[in-house]
Design goal:
This protein is of the alpha+beta class. It folds into three domains: 69-161, no CATH class; 165-249, no CATH class; 259-477, no CATH class. It is built from twelve helices and five strands. It has helices at 2-126, 140-161, 218-226, 253-260, 262-289, 292-304, 308-318, 320-331, 337-355, 359-391, 400-448, 469-477, and strands spanning 164-172, 178-186, 190-194, 199-206, 209-212. α4 (253-260) crosses α11. The longest helix has 125 residues, at 2-126. The termini are far apart.
């Protein structure tokens, strides 16, 4: 094994020596090859460097041309942008001019329509004064002439409206006959008529005619006709002569109620009934309240003197609520105070219905009357709207019936309700005052009797005390 290892090591060493010998043999040849490669490399490098310089020059030339073209393009773009801005401004100016032209055209059309409307309205207004305005049609020249005519005629009428004019003409007398004479127009708001047999202030009779007003104004008419100033000027002012004006006649209560319809008659009936009840209640309370102070003082004085029987006879003879309450109280003085006070309260309660009679009825009437008036108002307005639905609102006289019913019933309802409420409360206060006096008088009698607290004699079956009660009161009083 050692020999083999030695042999292998010797072989490897020989191989290494052989390689070193070969490398030594071929070393000059490798060096010659490296020198050739270096020359070739330098030659190729010089060629490439020249090529690069040529390409660089060409690139610089191309860049210069590109910059020139780019600058030219930017200048062209700037020029085109400036032109675009200029054209945009021109476009906006043209649009504004177009809009202004359209507005001017619309304004001219509106003004033309306005002028035509003014002329048409003026024809209707001036036609009332016998002024004719020619139809302008569509010719601008005729339109201008018609408008000028409108203003000139209006100015003339305004001037005449501030003057007193005298003209020959006729007017209707009070009996309806036509009288020829002299008409004196004070502007266009008043007129006077002077004829041989009649004179006075004139009022519209319709359709441009005049009639003599019933008011006596002959002195004023003659003074104005002669140009002198009257001491008292009687005048009738009117708006126009198209519609007649009649003298307003006063309505009677019967006509007013009839205009209000059925509900108005119901309210009137309630009002009359309330008036009757007020009279009856006031008379009854006046009769009941007479002599209350003197009767109470007399009875109390006799009770204090121990004359209970005389006090009972006096109260019974006086009659009325106070007399009956005092009599019932005096008849039970022999019992305890609590029992007598209860009897007195019971006696006052028995008189209360008579004292409150008709009081609640009057208050009901006071509450119902306005409601009936409201019902009439609603009914009248329904009738008015039915008329408007069927005939429209052209004629106010057709609406007067429903409106009259609506307003008259409300008026009548308040006329009935206010006095009924006022007098009803006053009479109730009077009745309450009388009842307070009844209670006060009964308590005065009880206090004047000096009644014992223990139980007194047993009352008899007829509601009166035993006879010995009065002597005991008399003895105690003595």
């Amino acid at each position: 094994m050692a020999d083999q290892k030695m042999f292998r090591l010797a072989g490897q060493t020989g191989l290494i020596l052989m390689i070193l010998a070969l490398m030594t043999l071929f070393a000059p040849t490798a060096h010659a090859q490296d020198a050739g490669l270096d020359r070739a490399y330098k030659k190729e490098f010089a060629y490439l460097k020249a090529q690069k310089e040529a390409l660089q020059k060409r690139l610089d030339a191309i860049n210069g041309q590109t910059r020139t073209k780019t600058n030219k393009a930017k200048a062209e773009v700037d020029r085109l942008q400036g032109r675009l801005v200029s054209l945009s401004l021109q476009s906006e100016e043209l649009e504004e001019a177009l809009l202004e032209a359209q507005r001017s055209t619309t304004t001219l059309e509106d003004r033309s329509d306005t002028v035509v409307g003014i002329i048409e309205q003026s024809k209707a207004s001036l036609g009332k004064y016998d002024v004719e305005i020619a139809d302008p049609g569509t010719d601008p020249a005729k339109t201008a002439a018609a408008l000028d005519n409108v203003f000139s005629e209006a100015a003339r009428l305004i001037e005449e409206g501030g003057q007193v004019r005298k003209v020959k003409g006729g007017f209707f007398d009070k009996d309806g006959s036509k009288v020829e004479g002299e008409l004196i127009h004070v502007g266009r708001v008043a007129s006077y008529g002077v004829a041989s047999n009649t004179s006075g202030v004139l009022a519209p009779a319709g359709e441009g005619r005049l009639k003599l007003w019933p008011e006596e104004a002959a002195a004023s008419a003659k003074a104005i006709a002669t140009g002198s100033a009257p001491s008292t000027l009687s005048i009738f002012l009117y708006e126009n002569l198209d519609k007649p004006i009649d003298e307003k006649k006063g309505k009677t209560w019967l006509e007013i109620v009839e205009a209000g319809g059925v509900i108005a008659w119901v309210i009137v009936f309630i009002g009359l009934l309330a008036f009757v009840l007020i009279i009856l209640r006031a008379g009854f309370l006046m009769w009941v309240g007479r002599g209350r102070k003197s009767l109470s003082d007399t009875v109390v004085a006799r009770v204090q003197a121990g004359h209970v029987d005389d006090a009972i006879r006096t109260a019974t003879a006086a009659g009325g609520p106070l007399g009956r309450v005092l009599a019932d109280t005096l008849k039970h003085l022999g019992r305890t105070r609590e029992v007598v006070e209860d009897i007195a309260s019971e006696a006052v309660l028995r008189e209360t219905p008579a004292l409150e009679r008709f009081g609640n009825v009057l208050m009901v009437f006071a509450a119902v009357s306005p409601l009936l008036g409201l019902l009439g108002t609603v009914t009248g307005m329904i009738s008015t709207f039915d008329i408007i639905t069927e005939y429209g609102t052209g004629d106010p006289k057709m609406l007067s019936g429903g409106i009259s019913e609506a307003l008259i019933t409300t008026q009548l309802g308040l006329i009935v309700a206010i006095p009924a409420l006022l007098f009803g409360n006053l009479l109730n206060s009077r009745a309450n005052s009388i009842m307070d006096d009844l209670e006060h008088s009964a308590l005065r009698v009880v206090n004047a009797s000096n009644m014992p607290k223990e139980e007194g004699p047993t009352p008899q079956t007829d509601g009166t005390a035993e006879a010995p009660a009065a002597p005991r009161l008399a003895e105690s009083a003595a």
